[in-house]
Amino acid sequence: MAHSETLSRLEATIQSRRQADPGSSYVAKLNARGLNKIAQKLGEEATETVIAALVEDRQALVGEAADLIFHLVVLLAAKDIPLADVMAELDRREGVSGLAEKAARPS
Asked: Which compartment or compartments is the protein found in (predicted)?
């Protein structure tokens, strides 16, 4: 199974649950609480991912990275940004030096 299919299924599941009953869906509950809460959860997951990386616990890092990606997709969905847009941006950057790409960004 291709990993891109996993992300596509995740995105579709998150989209389908955004308007569900907040009592029965974590995604719906986050959306009901608003963009600030979704962003806060993404930040928490990013911090937990960094901590897991620093303590060199591979399995913890894998789990936290999955949580981080999940919450990122929830945030993107809340902002009506499809993963395809993010993938297109990554494709655009492919083969470009990271230093050159960063220098070309508007300040």
From this structure: Cytoplasm
Q: Tell me how far apart the alpha carbons of residues 34 and 30 are, in angstroms, rounded to a whole number.
A: 7
CA–CA separation, 28 and 19 (whole Å): 6
Enumerate the domain spans of the chain: 3-81
Phi and psi at residue 97, to the nearest 5°: -55, 135
Per-residue model confidence as pLDDT tens digits over 16-48 = 999 999 999 999 999 999 999 999 999 999 999
pLDDT in tens, 45-102: 999 999 999 998 999 999 999 999 999 999 999 999 999 999 999 999 888 776 776 7
- Check if CATH label 1.10.287.1080 holds for domain 3-81: yes
**CA pair distance 50, 56, nearest whole angstrom:** 10
Place of tokens 């591979």: 58
CA–CA separation, 32 vs 21, rounded Å? 9
1 band by pLDDT with thresholds 50, 70 and 90: low
